[in-house]
Amino acid sequence: MIVQSPYPRVEIPEVSLPEFVLGQVEQWGDKPAFIDSLTGRSMTYTQFAQGARRLAAGLAASGFQKGDVFAIYCPNCPEYAVTFHGVALAGGVNTTINPLYTVDELHFQLVDANAKRLLTIPTFLEKALEAVKDTPVETVYVLGEAEGAVPFASLFSSGEEPPKIKVNPKEDLVVIPYSSGTTGMPKGVMLTHHNLISNVVQTLAVEKMAADEVSVGILPFYHIYGMVVIMNMSLYAGSLVVTMPRFELDAFLKVIQNYKVNRAALVPPIILALAKHPLIDEFDLSSLNYITSGAAPLGADLAAACAKRLNCIVKQGYGLTETSPVTNIMPNADSQSKPGSVGPLVPNTEAKVAHLETGEPLPHGEEGEICIRGPQVMKGYLNNQEATAAMIDSEGWLHTGDIGYCDEQGYFYIVDRAKELIKYKGLQVAPAELEALLLTHPAVADAAVIPSPDEEAGEVPKAFLVLKQEVDPQVILDYIAGHVAPYKKIRLFEIVDQIPKSPSGKILRRLLVQRERERKQI
User: Contact 99/222 with Cβ under 8 angstroms?
Assistant: First the structure.
């Protein structure tokens, strides 16, 4: 059966994202929109709106045109939001990049997204300048000043009005974040203005974020979760976000205590620390009312332990980069009565639990692949029609690759993952990417990479290696670590005689996953 959202349909404005957000923020005036936790520097809503408009004007004056791609390679800071909306107001498309990326990973995304400009910070500049070689990037900007890059501030001095850009909200892209989808190498996810606006409206209908609330901006804004649920939703709602460039437990707890944070969008590893770490008792976290977990599964026992320790609501939602991201979220009132659930569908969304072989909708309580339809579903993968067709079928159903079921009340539960991605602390790690790298090492004859369960991280990459010659496997792991972002590092290994494969040569990862789970009694 096809499951409909239990909520009334919401109206989704057919405007550009800057028009949607900037039209709303003007009423907040000199109210702080962002505070930089490192410096205490505040940016008001008026300053945010003026900054976005001045940036759009400066970009247009510098030759930036509608459809041009602007890469943001920065940690969380107030300027991130100004850049994101200034680029969109100029008719451009953002591509948001993980600050932990290596030169090779950064280079790949810049080429694949056809980025024309790049913004970074002085700390990342050396890596950025190396990565932009032989890419379409024409100009590298830096926050502040550093040799080899143009000061970002120079774009704000034109004094012109932003250009009048005609936007088709349902067709024109506003951001291209990268995801591995259900398998394979990272792919550009084409998200339109309408996609992001839809998800802000849909999620706010359930979350009811108020203008007097304070959120902690710890989830990275390059990631769809931080980008939409923290940065854009808070801007539209008129609330305050205290930005943090990286997670450090002591600094995170100080932000909650000092700024009286009452709403936190987090990932399970941080919730684990809140539930168990002794340092928690040294801080006053009584302002926290709501913790919403996403990006990776949150165990019911862990959610309950955290809720009890902090005396606040701890719940989870569900979504994907390809759905902008939210499709489900647990209502506050039911956060404890439905342990382990990701909640019902958000407004204007429908789903089916599909039979893994036939694709036919299954009744309540039966497990199958979760498929989603709604206005938040991506336009497709950039320059990859084959991957798009594999992800979104002819009836518009997006196949999530996640296995779950829906109960009689319309609450969804995710029980397993059919897709092969590893979720390390909520971040995607594609086995195929690591396997391809492993095979470039002269001592490796064959390799397979799977997720291995881990209490702190959720999952860690584990490699099964067939060796050509005698070698210390740690040498191979160090080799991989030198070519990927830290969260993608292979942390476990096992030497085997052969990798299980199908007759067509496809790695049978599920056999290895099953064996690993049995070994760890998962």
Answer: yes
Q: Which residue has the tokens 């300053």?
A: 47
**Cα(111)–Cα(287) distance, integer angstroms:** 45
The domain 422-520 having CATH identifier 3.30.300.30: the answer here is yes
pLDDT digits (tens, 9 = 90+) for 213-258: 999 999 999 999 999 999 999 999 999 999 999 999 999 999 999 9
DSSP state for residue 507 in the 8-state scheme: B
Q: Which of 318, 22, 329, 346 is nearest to 193 (CA)?
A: 22
Distance CA 328, CA 401 (A): 15
Burial code (b: 16+ CB inside 10 Å, e: under 16) for 437-472 equals: bbeebebbebbbbbbbbbeebbbbbbbbbebeeeee
CATH number of 2-8+16-403: 3.40.50.12780
What type of residue sits at position 463?
A
Give residue for tokens 């494969």.
501
CB 260 within 8 A of CB 214: yes
Name the residue type at position 411: Y
Global pTM reads: 0.89
The pLDDT assigned to 298 comes to 87
Tell me the two tokens of residue 80: 């991130």
**Dihedral Cα 184, 185, 189, 190, nearest 10 deg:** -110
First to last CA, the chain: 31
Domain residue spans in the chain? 2-8+16-403, 422-520
Backbone angles phi, psi at 242, to 5 degrees: -95, 110
Cis peptide before 325 (omega within 30 of 0): yes
Does residue 96 contact residue 113 with C-beta atoms inside 8 Å? no
